[in-house]
Amino acid sequence: MPNKVTDMHFHQEEEDTGVIRRSSWRTPRGHFVVYVGTKLERFVVPTRFLKSPLFQNLLEMAAEEFGYAEAHPNKIVLPCDVSTFRSLVMFLTSQDK
């Protein structure tokens, strides 16, 4: 399972986050895509995050704020900034260990 976040804007890699961030449109098996922040930055996250109550709350907040496919058709847009999302990912990844 991938353990890096690749930041395409700053050309940095962060270890042990459990999320892949890339410009490729191919999503690896066992992962799904979410968009975060005002610039709708694309993140590929493991499906195991769907079991987390914190991630489920974030998805519920997204549904309340954006509706289902109304504002952003065919995209899961999360209502938080990129740094908050990265913190959540690091927390969820630490819970797996």
What does this structure look like?
It is a single chain. With 97 residues, the chain is an alpha+beta fold. It has a domain at 47-95. 30% of the residues lie in helices and 23% in strands. The protein contains 2 helices and 5 strands, in the order ββββαβα. It has helices spanning 53-66, 82-96; strands at 4-7, 12-15, 31-36, 41-46, 77-78. The strands form 2 sheets. The chain has a 3-stranded mixed β-sheet with strand order 4-3-5. Strand 1 (4-7) and strand 2 (12-15) form a beta hairpin. The longest helix is centred in the last third of the chain and has 15 residues, at 82-96. It is globular. One of its GO terms (biological process) is response to auxin. Belongs to the ARG7 family. InterPro entries: SAUR_fam. It comes from Raphanus sativus (Radish). Keywords: Developmental protein, Growth regulation.
Topology record:
Blueprint: E1 4-7, E2 12-15, E3 31-36, E4 41-46, H1 53-66, E5 77-78, H2 82-96
Parallel strand pairs: 3-5
Antiparallel strand pairs: 1-2, 3-4
Q: Could you give a short description of this structure?
A:
Helix content is 30%, strand content 23%. The protein has 97 residues and is of the alpha+beta class.
Looking at this protein, list some descriptive labels.
alpha+beta, three-stranded mixed sheet, two-stranded antiparallel sheet, Auxin-induced protein 15A, growth regulation, SAUR_fam, developmental protein
